[in-house]
Specification:
alpha+beta, 2 domains, 25% strand, 7 strands, globular, 186 residues
Length: 186
C-alpha cells in the first residue's frame, strides 16, 4: 500500500499522486461520516462507528490503496478490537509531531505522556513504520525518533481513542498534555 509520507525519498515514488489519493480518501471518509451523522448518531460516535467499520477498511485497502499513519492506526485499532476483544487498545494521534500509532495493554492508571511509567507489558504498534516496540524499546525510540516525542512537553493537539478490554470506548482530546474533552461509550 502506498503512503504519501513514508516513501517520499524513493525516486520511483510519485508523492503528488499518492497525496491526492490520501486527500480523496479522507474527503470520502468525511462524507460518509456526515451521512452517519444525519441519521442522528452524535459526535464522536459517528466517526468512531465509521472508522470501526468494514466499509472504512475496504475504502482504504481496496478502493484507494493508500494509507498514512492515521489510516494504518485506525485499521490496526479495529483489527485488534475484533480479534482481541479482551485487550485494551489505544489510538494516539499527535499534531506536533504529526504521527499516529497504537498502544496496547497500557495500564490506564499510568500517565499517557510518560512512557517510562507505563507497565512493562505495554506494546507500541506503529503499523505505518512496520514496528512493534516493548515499553523499553519505545522509550529508546521515543527519545531518538522525531515522529514520536511523547512526553509532558508535547505541543499541539493529541487525539486519543481507548478501546477498553471487554466493552467500552473513550475519545479524548488533549491540548499539550492537558485533557480538554472526553466522551465515553459503554
Amino acid at each position: 500500500m502506498e503512503s504519501s509520507t513514508r516513501n517520499r525519498y524513493l525516486s520511483e515514488f510519485n508523492t503528488r499522486t499518492t497525496s491526492l489519493k490520501i486527500t480523496q480518501l479522507r474527503h470520502d471518509a468525511a462524507a460518509r461520516i456526515a451521512t452517519i451523522s444525519q441519521t442522528g448518531v452524535p459526535y464522536p460516535n459517528d466517526f468512531i462507528q465509521f472508522f470501526a467499520s468494514k466499509e472504512y477498511e475496504d475504502l482504504v485497502i481496496d478502493t484507494y490503496k493508500v494509507a498514512n499513519c492515521s489510516e494504518c492506526a485506525l485499521i490496526m485499532l479495529n483489527e485488534l478490537r475484533k480479534n482481541h476483544p479482551d485487550m485494551t487498545v489505544e489510538y494516539i494521534a499527535t499534531e506536533k509531531p504529526d504521527h499516529t500509532f497504537n498502544l496496547i495493554n497500557r495500564d490506564q492508571r499510568t500517565p499517557l505522556f510518560e512512557p517510562e511509567k507505563w507497565n512493562e507489558n505495554s506494546l507500541v504498534v506503529d503499523a505505518w513504520m512496520g514496528s512493534v516496540y516493548t515499553k523499553k524499546g519505545f522509550c529508546v525510540a521515543n527519545a531518538k525518533l522525531p515522529h514520536y516525542n511523547i512526553s509532558n512537553n508535547i505541543t499541539g493537539e493529541t487525539q486519543h481513542i481507548i478501546k477498553y478490554a471487554g466493552n467500552g470506548v473513550s475519545y479524548r482530546t488533549y491540548q499539550k498534555n492537558k485533557m480538554v474533552s472526553e466522551e465515553s461509550m459503554f
